[in-house]
Protein: SET domain-containing protein
Amino acid sequence: RIARGTLLWKADETSQIIYTEAKLRAKLVALTPTEAIDLLEHLYCWGGEVLEIVGDAKYWNHSRMKQNTGNHPDGNGEGRGDGVSSYALRDIEPDEELLDDYAAYSIVPWFEALCVEYGAKSCTSIGREYVMA
Structure:
C-alpha cells in the first residue's frame, strides 16, 4: 500500500532527459519507425519542455477522473511538494495502476507537429481527447 502524499517520482537531472527539437530529431533518425512512435508516445510535456522519464515512472497511465498521482495533495512548500515531482494523491492499494491526468500537461507546438509527422499521439493530445469525450 502506498500512503497519500508519498513521493513516487522525483523530478531531477537523473530521472529525466530534456529534449530540444534538434536533440529529439537526432535521436529519432536512429530508430525504426515503430521505435520512434513508441518513444514519442512515452514523452511528456511539462512547463514547456519535452521530457523522457527514465525508469519505471514512464509507465504511468492516463485517467482524467480517477487519477491517483500528481502534485502533492497538500500543495507545495516546506515538507510538501515541489510542483514537478509526482506524489500519491490518496492511498493507493496493491496492484492498483498508477494514473495521472495527461490533459494537465503542457502543449509544445513543435513536439505536437513532430508526433503528427511520425503518426504518433502525444500524451497531452490523448489526455485532451478524453476530456472532450
